[in-house]
Amino acid sequence: MFWNLVATIVCGFAAAGIAMGIRTATAKKAPRWLVPVFAGLGMMGYQIYMEYHWYDQMTARMPAESVVVATESQAEFWRPWSFFFPQINRITVLDESSVSRNPANADTARFQLYHFRQTYGGRVSKGTWLLNCPSRELVALADDGSPNTDQMRRLATDNTLLQEVCD
Question: Rounded distance, CA 162 to CA 112, Å?
Answer without folding.
Answer: 13
